[in-house]
Amino acid sequence: MGPVIRDIGAEDLPWVHALNRAHELELSPMSEAEMAAHLARADYARVAEDGAFLLAFGEAGDYSSPNFLWHKARFDRFLYVDRVATAATHRRRGLAAALYRDLIAFAAARGVPLIAAEINSDPPNPESDAFHSRFGFETVGEAFLEGRGKTVRYIALRL
Q1: What's the pTM?
Q2: Residue pair 74/127 in contact by the 8 Å Cβ criterion
Q3: Interior angle at CA 152, CA 38 and CA 133, nearest 5
Q4: What are the extents of the domains in the chain?
Q5: Can you give the pLDDT of all 159 residues of the chain as single tens digits?
Q6: Which pLDDT value is given to residue 148?
Q7: Which of 16, 7, 5 is nearest to 102 (CA)?
C-alpha cells in the first residue's frame, strides 16, 4: 500500500506554505495569503503523508506564470505542474512519485492528454532531471528567465 494522498485542506496551509518557503529558490516565494489564493485556483492540489505537496493548473487556469503561459501558447489541453516539494524529513519515501502517479491518473480520468512542467537547466537540477525521465517526460523547449537569472527546460509527458 502506498502513501495516503488527499486534497489539500485549509488545515494544511501552514505547513504547505512553510515547505514552499523552504524551497523558494526552486519554487518562487509567496506569502501565506498568496499561497491560499494559489491553492484555491489550482485544478490539482494534493498532499502525500503530510510531507509533500503538488499543485497543477489546467490550460484554462487563472495563472500568469511565464512558464505556464509558455505551455499555454503551445498546447491546447494540459495540466501544468506548478510546484512540487517534499519535506527533508519525508524524502526517499516515494511521496513525490506517488503524487505524480496520482496526477497522471487524475489527468487520464479527465481526458487530459499532456502533463507539462519545467526543470532548471542552469543552474542544473540533475535530481529533477532523473526523476522526470523515469516518468517519461521529454524536452519540448527551453527559455532563459531574465528576472530570475536562470534557464529552464520545458518538459511534457504525453498520456
Answers
A1: 0.94
A2: no
A3: 95
A4: 5-158
A5: 789 999 999 999 999 999 999 988 778 889 999 999 999 999 999 999 989 999 999 999 989 899 999 999 999 999 999 999 999 888 889 999 999 999 999 999 999 999 999 998 888 889 899 999 999 999 999 999 887 778 999 999 999
A6: 74
A7: 5
Q: Residue 115: what pLDDT? A: 98
Q: What is the DSSP string of the chain?
A: ----EEE--GGGHHHHHHHHHHTHHHH----HHHHHHHHHH-SEEEEETTTEEEEEEETT-S---HHHHHHHTT-SS-EEEEEEEE-GGGTTSSHHHHHHHHHHHHHHHTT--EEEEEEEEETB-HHHHHHHHHHT-EEEEEEEETTTTEEEEEEEEE-
Closest CA to 5 of 51, 43, 37, 38: 51
CATH superfamily of 5-158: Gcn5-related N-acetyltransferase (GNAT) (3.40.630.30)
What is the Cα–Cα distance from 121 to 123, expressed in whole angstroms? Answer: 5
Q: Residues 81, 45: contact at Cβ < 8 Å?
A: no
